[in-house]
């Protein structure tokens, strides 16, 4: 059990809360990163009999550690992607502002004047 906790404690400070309620033990493992980054610090709460905890706690901590690492890796990948997108956007904006804008001269269009067939009629209501 403490081997698994020691591996987890390499990257985080662990706070353990242990209590007994109606013959079952409640164990809460609350990680806190040593660098102050709260990402991936989801507490783990277990309620089971002491025998069940003896049997399964080490495996549960191992799986928790693997899931925590996976979440942290996903977060780092997301940060790297967002940083790359921001850099690309800044470069695109810089290139766009560096190019001089050249206005094109308007091409004259010949005006179309319709023939006025009604010009011969002075009275519109006749």
What is the rounded Rg?
36 Å
The first-level CATH class name of the domain at 2-68: Alpha Beta
Q: Return the structural class.
A: alpha+beta
Helix count, DSSP H or I runs of 4 or more residues? 2
- First-to-last CA distance: 107 Å
Multimeric status of the protein: single chain
Poorly predicted runs of 5 or more residues: none
* CATH fold node name of the domain at 2-68: Double Stranded RNA Binding Domain
Order of the strands making up the biggest sheet: 1-2-3
Helical residues, percent: 40-55%
Sheet of most strands: 3 strands, antiparallel
Number of strands: 3
Which H/E pattern describes the elements?
A: HEEEH
In short:
The protein has 126 residues and is an alpha+beta fold.
Mind explaining what this structure looks like?
- The longest helix has 49 residues, at 50-98.
- α1 packs parallel to α2.
- The protein has a domain at 2-68: Double Stranded RNA Binding Domain (2-Layer Sandwich).
- A hairpin with a 2-residue loop joins β1 (12-21) and β2 (24-33).
- The chain starts with a helix and ends in a 28-residue tail after the last helix.
- It has helices at residues 2-9, 50-98, and strands spanning 12-21, 24-33, 44-48.
- It is elongated.
- It contains two helices and three strands.
- It has a three-stranded antiparallel sheet with strand order 1-2-3, with helices on one face.
- With 126 residues, the chain is of the alpha+beta class.
């Amino acid at each position: 059990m403490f081997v698994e906790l020691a591996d987890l404690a390499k990257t985080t400070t662990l706070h353990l809360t242990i209590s007994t309620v109606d013959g079952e033990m409640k164990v809460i493992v609350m990680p806190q990163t040593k660098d102050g980054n709260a990402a991936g610090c989801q507490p783990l709460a277990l309620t089971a009999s002491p025998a069940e905890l003896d049997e399964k706690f080490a495996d549960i901590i191992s799986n928790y550690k693997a899931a925590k690492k996976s979440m942290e890796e996903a977060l780092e990948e997301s940060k790297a992607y967002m940083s790359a997108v921001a850099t690309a956007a800044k470069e695109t904006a810089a290139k766009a502002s560096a190019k001089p804008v050249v206005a094109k001269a308007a091409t004259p269009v010949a005006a179309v004047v319709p023939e006025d067939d009604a010009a011969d009629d002075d009275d519109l209501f006749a």
